[in-house]
Amino acid sequence: MIFSHIGSSPFVGYKEKGLKAEYLGLGEYADGKAHKVALEHPSDGITLIYFLDSQSFLPVKVETKYPNSDYKYPMIAFDSFKKVNGINVPHALTIFSPGIAGGSGRPDVPPSQLEFKVQKIEINPKISDSSFLPRVVTSTK
Fold it and tell me: What range defines the domain where residue 107 resides?
């Protein structure tokens, strides 16, 4: 599954992870210009193309390129960045897929779009130790 390739810090230690990185230049996205950087996973040939906003360098979009193909889906867009404990975190995520009709010609599967909106993010919240204890279930008889 492609989502296993999208880690929290894809560029940190990319060489140690066995990834190949390539700068693809400046490109366009919905809100402006972005630096395009490709990370190839040699184990399966899948390449993730990251679009980093040219002003903030925050990731605004990721395209998935499959080996020996021009197919570039799913595409994931990040939006609504807000600071949480000093870290810019996207609070909206959209996954675009062309459906099978866009890839294999089957008209019965339309394109799709999934949108996720984050209500709240907590970093290092206080969690009671009791949350990690096994629960004792008693009989109701």
Answer: 2-132
Residue at 104 is within a domain = yes
Q: What is the pLDDT of residues 63-77, one digit of tens each?
A: 888 888 766 677 889
The pTM of this model reads 0.70
b/e per residue, 39-63, with b = 16+ CB within 10 A? Answer: bbbeeeebbbbbbbbeeeeebbbbb
Integer Cα distance of 14 and 19 in angstroms: 5
CATH of the domain at 6: 2.50.20.10
Q: What is the pLDDT of residues 80-137, one digit of tens each?
A: 999 998 888 899 999 887 765 444 444 555 677 889 999 998 888 899 888 888 877 7
Give the total number of structural domains in the chain: 1
